[in-house]
Design brief:
Blueprint: H1 3-42, H2 62-93, H3 96-123, H4 130-163, H5 173-195, H6 198-228, H7 233-262
Length: about 270
């Protein structure tokens, strides 16, 4: 028996396996690597001042200026996602600390939103190519959609706090599910925007459809509960307002994804 040949064959198989593993790691790990690098560059994700936004690029390199604005919009999106998570925890645990954290993040986001808006507004005074003009518009729209999402999440928190959460009955199964889906829709839309990920954009749109379907089921069941006197009219209004705000979170997430599907240059 040719043991030397067998050994060479074994080594060849091992080498091929190692190469396949490297290729697989590269394919799967690119998203993780890019995210880690982004977080290292941002430092503290809750820093209130923009990390970038250098106006010196306006004249010679508007494309770089747009890229910096995009990074700040994404950073703001990460913080908005944290607010959604804090809201979900508030509903689960009824611990006020989650509302406090959400309000702190909201102040930071509002400040960043204003800084990004000012930066993009100033940039619009300089000559931009057609492609850069389209990018500029999408950045303005995405910046606006994210801050609107935050406003709707904060509306939910205010509704919970206003009602006296200690006496608030367990949330409706539809509300729990809708909030979960709206959070996932936003994550997908943010990934789509950050990495020009068409699959994530499609996922966000599908999630919005699921949210809309759940909203219809909720209203149908809610009417029946009100008819039977299970809910008071006041509590019904509170729940309806919460559902409306959740639905609008999904809508703004879908807006972000639609822009990604329409354009192919947000890289």
């Amino acid at each position: 028996m040719n043991f030397q040949g067998t050994d060479m064959y074994t080594r060849l198989i091992a080498g091929v396996g190692l190469l396949a593993a490297i290729v697989l790691f590269w394919a799967i790990g690119r998203f993780i690597i890019k995210t880690v690098v982004k977080l290292m560059k941002f430092g503290e994700s809750s820093a209130s001042e923009p990390v970038q936004l250098d106006t010196s690029y306006f004249v010679q390199s508007p494309g770089i200026a747009l890229g910096q604005a995009k990074e700040e919009v994404v950073r703001m999106g990460f913080m908005a996602n944290s607010i959604i998570e804090e809201t979900a925890e508030l509903i689960k645990s009824n611990l006020h600390k989650h509302a406090v954290k959400a309000w702190e993040l909201e102040k930071t986001i509002q400040h960043l939103y204003e800084k990004i808006s000012e930066y993009l507004s100033e940039l619009s005074n300089y000559p931009l190519s057609d492609e850069d003009t389209d990018k500029h518009i999408i950045l303005l729209e995405t910046n606006e959609d994210i801050v609107r999402i935050v406003e709707h999440v904060m509306n939910i928190i205010m509704l919970i706090e206003k009602y006296d959460s200690n006496s608030l009955p367990a949330f409706d199964k539809y509300i729990d599910k809708m909030l979960l889906l709206s959070g996932e829709a936003f994550k997908q839309s943010l990934q789509a925007f950050d990495y020009n990920d068409k699959t994530a954009a499609e996922n966000a749109k599908k999630l919005e459809e699921e949210i809309n379907n759940l909203e219809q089921q909720y209203h149908k069941e809610q009417m029946e509960r009100l008819r039977k006197g299970v809910f008071t009219g006041h509590l019904g209004i509170i729940y309806d307002d919460i559902v409306l705000n959740i639905e609008l979170i999904g809508k703004h997430s879908s807006n972000i994804s639609v822009n990604v599907l329409k354009k192919d240059f947000l890289k």
